[in-house]
Design brief:
Thrombin, subunit H, about 190 residues, elongated, mainly beta, disordered C terminus, single chain, 2 domains, 3 helices, five-stranded antiparallel beta sheet, Chitinase A, domain 3
Length: about 190
């Protein structure tokens, strides 16, 4: 079965930056499972996987514009420390989730100078060209419910292996993909 819109795809992958540094990998866990054609993975990788089938292997390069976008220096902001909860221990490198007009996004604290905190709302991989080695593990038909909801349900939805209805706040699996988001939001129910 070929990978095309509306199919559930399982892949193993290794992700490196241009310098060859390992950024992420499915080697330590279960394959990444997603619903093809529903913006569940970065567009450049999804485009490269189109038409492939179970057992296929590929190496591909995804430019920043087809991955997490170019860096936007307007997303590096200085805010008052008062913007944080009084009991929050704000330190450089910490990340937190913030809501914006585009939805939720991860924000990183870059530095602290007195009461001024510099934050960066760019995705940590913004501006990076990504190098993937991918093995297609499986391709299957999506259920009607998966197609309706736009993401994979059930055991395949979570890298931690929780089954349908089992995902909840305690499920802290994944790498930021939609399947992991499904766990953290409890929408595997």
């Amino acid at each position: 079965m070929d990978i095309q819109k509306g199919k559930v795809v399982s892949i193993d992958y290794i992700l490196r930056d241009t310098g060859g540094k390992l950024l992420d990998s499915s080697d330590e866990g279960d394959p990444l499972v997603y619903l093809h054609g529903n913006d569940n993975i970065i567009p450049g990788l999804e485009k490269q996987l189109e038409g492939k089938k179970s057992g296929d292997k590929l190496s591909c390069v995804v430019p920043a514009v087809e991955a997490y976008g170019e860096r936007n220096e307007e997303l590096v902001l200085k805010v008052s420390k008062k913007e944080f909860s009084p009991d929050a221990e704000v330190t450089p490198g910490m990340q937190f989730e913030a809501q914006s007009e585009e939805g939720s996004q991860i924000v990183t604290v870059m530095k602290i100078a007195g009461d001024e905190v510099t934050i960066d709302a760019n995705h940590p991989l913004a501006g990076e060209t990504l190098h993937f080695q991918v093995s297609v593990v499986d391709v299957r038909e999506a259920t009607a419910e998966e197609l309706e909801h736009g993401h994979v349900h059930g055991h395949d939805a979570c890298e931690c292996g929780c089954g349908e209805g089992d995902c909840g706040d305690e499920c802290s699996c994944g790498d930021g993909t939609y399947g992991a988001k499904a766990c953290s939001e409890g929408c595997c129910d």
